[in-house]
Amino acid sequence: PATKQSIGPAGGSLATPDGRLTLKIPQDALSSPVNVTIQPITDQSPGGLGKAYRLEPNGQTFGTPVEVSFHYDAQDLAGTSPDALDVAYQDAEGFWRVFQSVNRDQANKTLTVATTHFSDYTAVARFQLQPNRPVVRVGKSVELVLNSCGRRDFIDKLFKLSGSCLPVETTAIAAVNWTVNGNSGNSTFGTVTEEVKDAMTGGTYTAPAKKPTPNVVTVRTDVRYKFYASSNSDVWAFALITIVDEGYTASGESHDETYSGVICDLAKEFTVNGTGLA
Questions:
Q1: How far, in Å, CA of 131 to CA of 124, rounded?
Q2: Which distant-in-sequence residues (6+ apart) come within 8 Å of 133 by Cβ?
């Protein structure tokens, strides 16, 4: 449901019931009362987080900038960092444009931008480590790739467009550092090594030979990105990796039926599917 309020020359504020988006209109930004609406919509922007919001009346302009603030939570930070969060709006041609200046308040977990017009707005994650929550068996490996949902070429950079989420090319990285649970890795929690494939930035995590306790580890990459204007010089992304024991292979045959499969836990019920039954 939409959130509505009439706001006039005296200014005012409006927020969604869940506090996800707050709109602050200063005094004299409007010359006459306007029925302001915040309408949640499906987010179709690259790297979008949760819902997008349509601020109406669409195209409404203001004499002085108004503030649009997004509140983010732990779910929004899955695989990314606060410094990698931005705000984008959709223009009349349908392009999602990233704001050049974003006030990132990590203490209050807010992203605030100043704007002079209404449109569709959303919070976006510019950097993500994928897969974000893989499951790996002991002794096995998984490849992790650093994705960027941002400006991809000169035109995108020039017009601040939000491009598709694509792997980061190594030519865009000034420095990268991989860690497991805060260190370079060990036999208890596993190890991670930098892996460059097709000139893309990534790493390979190898699980330890024995399942650790707890069996969820954090693999993190700290990146110094040449072309990303952040409050800090480094941006980081992470993946939460669950380590499980090896399964059991079941195979055999009975008359004309053969069967095979992987059983994860012999202490729990399982089903073996067969083929060849008449």
A1: 18
A2: 78, 239, 240, 241, 242
Q: Model confidence over 199-234: pLDDT tens digits?
A: 677 889 999 999 999 999 999 988 776 665 544 456
C-alpha to C-alpha distance for 214 and 200, rounded to whole angstroms: 31
Residue for token pair 């200063």: 26
* Degrees, nearest 5: CA angle 40-71-18: 50
Measured CA distances, 132 to 80, 98, 135, 140, 224 (Å): 9, 24, 10, 17, 20
Place of tokens 């606060």: 82
Angle at 96 between CA 13 and CA 50, to 5 degrees: 60
For residue range 81-106, what is the model confidence (pLDDT) as tens digits? Answer: 788 888 989 888 788 888 878 999 99
Q: Is the preceding omega at residue 131 within 30 degrees of 0, hence cis?
A: yes
Nearest to 113 by CA among 121, 191, 42, 150: 121
Rounded Cα distance, 23 and 5, in Å: 11
As a three-state string, the secondary structure of 216-241 is EEEEEEEEEECCCCCCCCEEEEEEEE
